[in-house]
Every structure is written in C-alpha cells, then in structure tokens.
Amino acid sequence: MSKKRIFILGVGAVGKNLLLNIKNNTMNFNFDEHFRIIGAADSRSIILGEEGISPENLLSAKMEGALENAGSKTARLPNPDEVDILIDASTASKDGLRETNIYKDFLLAGKSVVTSNKSPLANFWPEVMNFSKEGKGNILYESTVCGGLPLFNMVRSSLHGMKIMQFSGIVNLTTNYILEIMRRGGRMDEAIQDAIREGFAETDYSDDVTGLDSARKSIIISNSLFGTEFRLRNLKYEGITSSIEFENGSRKMLLSTVTRRDDEIIVESRIRNVNKNENFYNLGPKSMAYELKPSGRSAIFVSEDFDGPVETSLGVLSDIIALA
Ligand SMILES: NC(=O)c1ccc[n+]([C@@H]2O[C@H](COP(=O)([O-])OP(=O)(O)OC[C@H]3O[C@@H](n4cnc5c(N)ncnc54)[C@H](OP(=O)(O)O)[C@@H]3O)[C@@H](O)[C@H]2O)c1
Known about the structure:
There is one protein chain. The chain is α/β, with parallel strands linked by helices and 324 residues long. Helix content is 35%, strand content 22%. The chain has eleven helices and twelve strands. The chain has a seven-stranded mixed β-sheet, with helices on both faces. The longest helix has 17 residues. Bound molecules: NADP nicotinamide-adenine-dinucleotide phosphate. The site of NADP nicotinamide-adenine-dinucleotide phosphate has 26 residues, from helix 1 and helix 11.
C-alpha cells in the first residue's frame, strides 16, 4: 500500500502541535504506516523532501527558525500531482482568496484538503464545495469551528438526516474569556494578554475582538449544517469593547446562533445576556460549547473546559486519519 503524501501549509501553534502529536503517537493510530510528510511551508519558506520528512526534524527546523534545515527549499508550492493531502494550518487571510486559489488546484485534481483555516470557507463556500464536487477531492474542516470540539463529523456520523432547528454556541474562546474576566472585575487588555500567552487568541487578535472570527465560524456552521450558501460579507456581526456593561445575575457571551424559521435561515453572531437557567451560564471562562436543537427531540449540549491549539491539532489529525 502506498503512503499518502502530506504537505503542511503553516507551522505555527496548530501545525507544531500536529507534528508533536504525530511524533508522540497521541492517537491510537499508526501514522507512518499510512502517511508520509513530503513538505511544509511557513510565511517565509517552502520546503520539500520527497523521501519523507520526520515530524521531529520539521519541528526542530521550525524551532531553529529555519524550515529549510528539514528539506530542500523551493520557490513554489508543490503541484497537486506531488501531494495527496494538503493540510492548511496557515494564518487566515482577510478575504480568503489566497487559500481558495490553492484549494482549487488541489480539489479539482481530486486531492484532499484538511483545514483549520476558516477564511476560505467563510468567504468562498460555494466555490470551494463546487471544486470538491467537480474534482472529487475531499474537503475536511472539522477544526475550523470550535477547534477540537467535535461538531461537523459528529453530526454527519451520528445524526443522519436530522433536521436541525437551531445551533447556538460559544465558538470563539478569546472573546468569551475576556467577557467573563471583565464581568469579574478584570481588565480587557490583561485578558487579551492571557489569551495570547496561552495560545488560544488568533495571531491577529483583532479578528477575535472585532467578532470577525466568530462571524466566519457562524457562516461555516450555517452552510454546513443548514445547507445555506452564505458569505461572510452578508453578515452583520458584533465584537467586544471595554465599555460593555454587565447586569447582576447574568453573564454576557458572544454567541453564534443559526435558526431555521419556516423556510428562512437566520445567522447571528452577537453579544447577549445568558441567564442562570441556560446551559451556557455554568461554564468555566475558557470553555467551548454548543447546543443543537434538532426537530422532534430534546436539545443536545456539548462542552469542554478548554480548547486551544493542542485540541485543534487533534481535530486536524482526526480528519487526516479519516482519509487513511
Ligand atoms: N490556535 C487555535 O487554537 C486555532 C483554533 C481553530 C482554528 N485555528 C486556525 O488555524 C490556523 C492556524 O492557527 P495557529 O494558531 O497555528 O496560527 P499561527 O500560530 O499564527 O500559525 C500560522 C502559521 O501560518 C504560517 N503562514 C502565514 N502566512 C502563510 C502563507 N502565506 N503561506 C504559508 N504559511 C503561512 C505562519 O508562518 P510563520 O511561522 O512564518 O509566521 C505560521 O507558521 C489559523 O487559520 C487559525 O485561525 C486556530
């Protein structure tokens, strides 16, 4: 059996944790039997090593600040015929165009794309899905929303045919952490620094604070779970400021909500009061959680105490393993 060739775009917090998890055999799966990493890129270099690059070598080269120490430096990304699976753990571009153009080549050539990067799917969902359909290349995007908390794959595998009436969730940890620290009397700038230090803030944390990250995810949720073809540019969304006021007996959260009302699907990404009788109220400040309301049955609530780059990288790894 020939091993599937993997190229990794982005060796930052998620990319490095992905390599660490492969190296440490965190999953109950023999990675080397099925896959071979043949290259990687960061913002400065692209490297290739057709015989296979070990996660150890790639990690230490990245830590030394010279990716090229792990392979031969090249000027361009590999052609789709040189790769079977493209992993996108790169920084989200504002308009998603750079990533979408790369996905286009790979998906149309029948190659798989696994991504934790939201921007291409939030901006170009219809195009990306059409490339996938036309070229028969898989696009897997579990960790674009809620990081490592299972959502899309779980719905796909365990709720076959279920009509979802509403999704609501904490999909951006940073903003909800900041809101909770502020409610407890802390300062917004200090909470942002905590989020950067612990690695759960976006590289450009303004994407979190302005609500852009949560808005991108809301679009992906709507398109994936409710069958819409929305684009980020059509969504009015809210972010947080240091002047937010809190009321006694309730919390404030930036929630992503998608609601099915008759034939209409309504997407929102805004701050609202969360009262004591709601599941979200009792969560810790670093929790990620969502509630699904399917038709004809009680609501499903899924939560975890923390989600950062480690959890996200495990979501990416799970998508890769699904392609074995
Ligand atoms: N961190 C999380 O918990 C989390 C959760 C869910 C989703 N995500 C998403 O996952 C992606 C990666 O997140 P992260 O936290 O790992 O970000 P990060 O630490 O900033 O790493 C981003 C990586 O992308 C590289 N990069 C930037 N521009 C590039 C380009 N044009 N071509 C190739 N590589 C490029 C960077 O290169 P340099 O190393 O040279 O800077 C870096 O290695 C982002 O899209 C993020 O939104 C992250």
